């Protein structure tokens, strides 16, 4: 049984069936080299001070090496057959008629598929969708039933050769005669996905105990009566009843607001969009019936889930299964390849390949038709502001979102949007609710921003309007209400660390774009008749992480001082293979010589889990943690901006422990050689004085030691020269105590620890290495964050503000972005160039959301199969102020500042900043996104 493969009980199903799970990333030994485990690059990779000149994977990418999963065919994969079959899906484009079969007569005899797979074949063979409440209840639409959603697959066609496959696919595309429909019916979506509410009333001051809050009391959950949300009744009974009573009090306070208050009520809309990741969904699967091994090559942000769910799915079918062998390449999906259906459709295709690998890969039409979308949001907001002070008294927001015809993460996206709606402001009273509805639309899921782009954009547009109505500078109003360190968020939790929003606001107010905007507007418009000039500002803070982040990392040094590094993280585009290696170098003074990412086999970590980090009761968790091998979660997918802080925490802890247990004692031993304790004895040199840099160890005026010499001494002394850690975070880090041989009990910010000893270790210590060649130390005590912290919503934030300078052509209605300047706080930058890349790419995505990108939800939307980039407009270099964009990053408060996850926050502020800039330009406000030329012309007419 392999660690990390028991999420949602599928490991148990697989284990009962005798199924082994093997997940790996292709190594350079593969027939076609995949650089997921990068070789050490050329000698010019690092500067003399250990900083990277380019990404670790850069040479592979620019020289055309195969890196992405989509690049691979069966002949490229060692051990796979050389023959490659291909498959495509036929999709329903109507969701109000029954499906009655397919008519392939248009293909003629020459293009008939070698195998057709229908829903009835799957049922006969025991193949059903995993997690029907998440992925939907069927893979393919059953005959006689109405599709759940537009674009739902009805049949799978498999071809043994590419030429016939390609010709057939082109022939049936856009042909409405292929799918046969029966009687007209009502729409057939699944039940609605969920409703939640977060109500808070403070205790009179920010630091007083809350009268009611989710963290102190509870979040509130609703049900549905048709399309209406039903909330629990208000009262003095249980916590939810008291929460609804608090919500009713807030409504009474809004109704009672007098002339001394500004009461602003507005409705906002944020559209559905396609993430437009350049790599469309794909998978290549070979089922070897003789051995019972299911070989998968797939693009995924969550490979562990793909392996375990595939095992559970196939083990229940007629297909004998002994092992799942999953290989994963580089991918990018902006969240859309995290927990999504496509890999399992690929598995279905492979099962019917008759011994040949089958490749199922979306083209761009199919990706628009079936790929996960960003949720549209409808938001009704109310803001109450004291006119005399400009202080916010109350804010409420009641949101609806359309998740389409599969649940996916719609409920989660809705409540994350609600918990983020406060943006950067302290709110004494707040009531935010969100309801996720099902419909016939294409499935929406875990897309970059995860509901927060929608809700915070609305808040920032609202604050800008409130400032105008109060006659205040928009940044001044923000300063009066800024969320400061130690204050509580709308869930009643105090975020971690220093919140530096006030510092950003002051910088933005002094920036020439803002300070000189009035004069520049006058001059620009005088010089450019018919053109209107405007500057807008917006400022947000985005949480990072999921509240259940877990990781594994391992570091080893050999007697020659070579460093081997292994980690569960895999590359999704942000440069994790580079940043994690640099983190090792920052602590050990040298980057690893050998790296391996996407590691799933951890025999030294015999951990157990039920993977219920959100739903397990505190009583049950307390019982389970008595087992020193139990953990709430084994590992996390690559999502939620979690790599640099959460996954990096495992890297940093492994490196620190290696220094403490091996490098520092070995260095002391070398410095202590000689009569009377050697050169160390006359000095008082402490661990905190140790410095590792440029391959040398220095401390307290002692002679520098080469890393190689210290490593050799650590091995000679039999010290722990290998360290593997497991970490877990529930909006707070887990700590545990371990009895370490030769040192006694120590407390570490990990919940599992394994050690490997040097060559000189005595026999009794060697005998402890019984778990995969390692000594797994069963913890003596553990402190997991209480499950109540789930109600905190978030405690880790990264802020970003953007100033946008626009020109509006009053004749055409076109909005041109002239320049933009962003201010970001991300803690300590590990690789500044990677941060810069994230900022530039994120802002481009935000610009598209603000001005261009839009998908209709239903019959005229992407589910009809006719959408591509010829209809869907993305921003280009011309649209993003490529040569006039600037950004600054606040310097860390100290060298010990942790890095913060920023991949999502960098996309958001530019959206409301542009909306506010357009208002400054033409004096009209927009409440629906995107702001298109047609909407501008209508506003000006």
Summarize this entry quickly:
26% of the residues lie in helices and 23% in strands. The chain is an alpha+beta fold and 941 residues long. The radius of gyration is 29 Å and the shape is globular.
Quickly list its features.
8-stranded mixed β-sheet, Aldehyde Oxidoreductase, domain 4, alpha+beta, 35 strands, 7-stranded mixed β-sheet, signal
Provide an overview of this structure.
- This protein is an alpha+beta fold and 941 residues long.
- Among the domains are: 195-272 and 374-545 and 794-940, Aldehyde Oxidoreductase, domain 4, CATH 3.30.365.10; 549-729 and 735-783, Aldehyde Oxidoreductase, domain 4.
- Helix content is 26%, strand content 23%.
- The strands form eight sheets. It has an eight-stranded mixed β-sheet. Strands 9-8-7-19-18-17-10 form a seven-stranded mixed β-sheet. Strands 23-22-21-27-30-31 form a six-stranded mixed β-sheet.
- Strand 12 and strand 13 form a beta hairpin.
- The chain is globular and about 95 Å long.
- The model is unreliable at 1-17 and 26-36 (pLDDT under 50).
């Amino acid at each position: 049984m392999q660690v990390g493969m028991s999420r949602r009980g599928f490991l148990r199903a697989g284990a009962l069936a005798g199924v082994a799970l093997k997940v790996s990333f292709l190594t350079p030994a593969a027939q076609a080299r995949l650089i997921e485990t990068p070789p050490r690059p050329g000698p010019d990779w690092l500067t003399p001070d250990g900083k990277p000149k380019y990404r670790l994977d850069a040479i592979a990418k620019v020289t055309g090496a195969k890196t992405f999963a989509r690049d691979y065919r069966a002949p490229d994969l060692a051990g796979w057959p050389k023959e490659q079959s291909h498959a495509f899906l036929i999709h329903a484009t109507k969701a109000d008629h029954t499906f009655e079969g397919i008519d392939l007569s248009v293909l003629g005899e020459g293009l008939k598929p070698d195998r057709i797979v229908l829903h009835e074949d799957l049922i006969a063979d025991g193949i059903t969708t995993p997690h029907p409440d998440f992925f939907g209840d069927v893979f393919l639409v059953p005959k006689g039933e109405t599709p759940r959603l537009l674009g739902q697959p009805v049949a799978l066609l498999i071809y043994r050769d590419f030429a016939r496959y390609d010709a057939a696919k082109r022939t049936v595309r856009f042909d409405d005669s292929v799918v046969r429909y029966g009687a007209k019916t009502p729409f057939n979506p699944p039940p609605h996905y969920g409703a939640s509410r977060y109500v808070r009333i403070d205790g009179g001051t920010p630091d007083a105990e809350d009268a009611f809050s989710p963290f102190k009391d509870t979040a509130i959950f609703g049900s549905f009566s048709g399309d209406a949300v039903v909330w629990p009744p208000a009262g003095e009974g249980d916590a939810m009843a008291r929460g609804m009573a608090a919500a009713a009090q807030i409504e009474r306070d809004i109704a009672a607001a007098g002339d001394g208050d500004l009461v602003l009520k507005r409705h906002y809309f944020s559209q559905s969009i396609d993430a437009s990741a350049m790599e469309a969904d794909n998978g290549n699967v070979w089922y070897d019936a003789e051995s019972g091994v299911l070989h998968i090559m797939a693009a995924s942000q969550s490979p562990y889930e793909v392996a375990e769910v595939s095992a559970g799915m196939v083990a229940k079918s007629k297909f004998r299964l002994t092992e799942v062998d999953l290989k994963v390449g580089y991918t990018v999906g902006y969240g859309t390849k995290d927990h999504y259906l496509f890999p399992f459709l690929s598995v279905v295709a492979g099962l019917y390949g008759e011994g040949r690998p089958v490749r199922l890969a979306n083209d761009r039409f199919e990706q628009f038709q079936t790929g996960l979308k960003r949720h549209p949001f409808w938001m009704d907001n109310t803001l109450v502001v004291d006119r005399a002070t400009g202080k916010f008294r109350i804010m409420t927001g009641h949101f609806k979102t359309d998740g389409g015809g599969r649940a996916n993460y719609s409920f989660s996206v809705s409540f994350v949007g609600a918990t983020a709606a406060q943006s950067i402001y302290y709110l004494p009273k707040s009531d935010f609710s969100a309801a996720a509805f099902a419909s016939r639309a294409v499935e929406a899921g875990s897309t970059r921003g995860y509901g927060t782009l929608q809700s915070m954009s609305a808040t920032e547009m609202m604050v800008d309007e409130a400032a105008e109505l109060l006659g205040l500078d928009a940044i001044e109003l923000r300063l009066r209400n800024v969320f400061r360190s130690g204050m509580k968020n709308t869930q009643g939790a105090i975020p971690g660390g220093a919140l530096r929003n006030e510092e950003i606001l002051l910088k933005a107010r002094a920036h020439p774009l803002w300070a000189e905007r009035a004069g520049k507007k006058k001059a620009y418009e005088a010089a450019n008749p018919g053109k209107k000039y405007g500057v807008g500002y917006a400022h947000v803070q985005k949480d990072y992480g999921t509240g259940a982040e877990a990781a594994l990392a391992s570091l080893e040094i050999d007697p020659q001082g070579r460093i081997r590094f292994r980690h569960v993280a895999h590359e999704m585009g942000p440069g994790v293979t580079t940043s994690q290696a640099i983190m090792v170098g920052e602590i050990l003074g040298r980057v690893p010589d050998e790296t391996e990412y996407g590691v799933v086999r951890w025999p030294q970590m015999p951990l157990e889990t039920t993977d219920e980090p959100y739903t397990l009761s505190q009583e049950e968790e307390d019982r389970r943690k008595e087992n020193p091998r139990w953990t709430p979660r084994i590992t996390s997918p690559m999502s939620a901006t979690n790599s640099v802080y959460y996954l990096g925490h495992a890297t940093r802890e492994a490196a620190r422990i290696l220094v403490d247990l091996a490098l520092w004692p070995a260095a002391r031993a070398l410095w202590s050689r000689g009569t009377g304790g050697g050169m160390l004895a006359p000095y008082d040199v402490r661990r905190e004085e140790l410095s590792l840099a440029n391959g040398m160890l220095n401390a307290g005026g002692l002679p520098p030691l080469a890393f190689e010499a210290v490593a050799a001494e650590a091995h000679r002394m039999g010290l722990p020269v290998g360290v593997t850690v497991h970490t877990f975070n529930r909006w707070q880090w887990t700590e545990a105590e371990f009895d370490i041989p030769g040192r006694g009990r120590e407390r570490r910010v990990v919940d599992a620890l394994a050690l490997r000893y040097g060559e000189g270790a005595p026999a009794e210590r060697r005998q402890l290495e019984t778990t995969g060649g390692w000594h797994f130390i069963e913890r003596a005590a553990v402190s997991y964050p209480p499950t109540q912290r789930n109600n905190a919503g978030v405690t880790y934030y990264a802020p970003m503000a953007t100033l946008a300078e626009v020109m509006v052509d009053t004749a055409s209605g076109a909005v041109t972005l002239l320049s933009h300047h962003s201010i970001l706080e991300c803690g300590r930058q590990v690789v500044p160039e990677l941060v810069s890349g994230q900022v530039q790419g994120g802002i481009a995505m935000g610009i598209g959301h603000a001005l261009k990108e839009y998908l209709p939800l239903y019959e005229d939307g992407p589910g009809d199969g006719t959408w591509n980039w010829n209809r869907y407009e993305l921003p280009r270099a011309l649209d993003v102020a490529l040569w006039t964009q600037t950004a600054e990053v606040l310097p860390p408060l100290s060298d010990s500042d942790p890095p913060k996850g920023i991949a999502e926050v960098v996309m958001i502020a530019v959206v409301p900043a542009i909306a506010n800039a357009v208002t400054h330009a033409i004096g009209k406000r927009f409440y629906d996104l995107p702001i298109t030329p047609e909407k501008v012309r209508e506003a000006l007419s």
